[in-house]
Amino acid sequence: MHATRTIADVMTRGAHTLSPDDSVIHAAQAMESLDVGALPVCDAGHNLVGLVTDRDIVLRAVARNRLSDSLPLTEVMSHDVLWCYEDEPVDDVLDDMVQRQIRRLPVMDREKNLVGMVSLGDLAAKTQNSGIGGALAEISLPAAPVRRTEGVSPSGDYELPEVRNSDMHEVNIGRS
Questions:
Q1: 101-119 confidence digits (pLDDT tens)
Q2: What pLDDT is stored for residue 22 in this prediction?
Q3: Phi, psi of 129 (to 5 degrees)
Q4: What single string gives the DSSP state of each residue in 131-151?
Q5: How many CA atoms lie within 13 A of 21 on its CB side?
Q6: What are the two backbone dihedrals, phi and then psi, of residue 22, each rounded to the nearest 5 degrees?
Q7: Ramachandran area for residue 48 (φ above 0: left; ψ -120 to 50: alpha; else beta)
Q8: Which long-range contacts (C-beta less than 8 Å, at least 24 apart) are formed by 19-23?
């Protein structure tokens, strides 16, 4: 029998943080430089106050034609941030991620200091958990939007073909 792995065993330590007053453009540039899609936002006291994702930037700044050098992160970041403790078991955190349909979480120590980030990619790359594929399927499928494609449905709308769980074995969530 092996010891239960904790988030500390699989997380990425030393997360780069941003300030709520940093510009959205600065955040996008940091994401590009670090090759990440989410960054924690901390106040002057190093308390976690938000999380900004590439999706936040696209939907809350670009799509609304608000992108400028002066647009602060407070205008686009997610304020109610879910996080986990570094000493929590991997399986418990994975279950929470599936239940809440999230792909990455800030990781805190028991003093509530930010110590890193954990993603489904971390869990897939650093564990032998057979539930990762199913977790990705559960997180991704319900949120799949209807998008325009080449085909037209009988109603005249463009729609994506239905994706079934059996199709998910082809999804690679790690880096090649």
A1: 888 999 999 999 999 999 9
A2: 97
A3: -70, 115
A4: THHHHHHHHHGGGPPP---SS
A5: 2
A6: -60, 150
A7: beta
A8: 19/43, 19/44, 19/73, 20/49, 20/50, 20/72, 20/73, 20/74, 20/77, 21/72, 21/73, 21/74, 22/72, 22/73, 23/68, 23/69, 23/70, 23/71, 23/72, 23/73
Please, are residues 12 and 122 in contact by the beta-carbon 8 Å criterion?
Answer: yes
Give kind and range of the element (H or E) at residue 122: helix 120-126
Task: DSSP for 2-56, please give it.
Answer: -PPPBHHHHSEES---B-TTSBHHHHHHHHHHHT-SEEEEE-TT--EEEEEEHHH
Listed residue (126, 20, 142) closest to 81, CA to CA: 20
Mean pLDDT over the full length of the chain: 80
d(CA 101, CA 137): 10
Alpha carbon 160 to its chain's center: 23
What amino acid occupies position 141? Answer: L
Please tell me the predicted confidence (pLDDT) of residue 37.
Answer: 93
Q: Please name which of 86, 84, 73 lies closest in space to residue 43, comparing C-alpha atoms.
A: 73
Tell me how far apart the alpha carbons of residues 5 and 48 are, in angstroms, rounded to a whole number: 25
What are the residues facing 41 on neighbouring strands?
18, 50
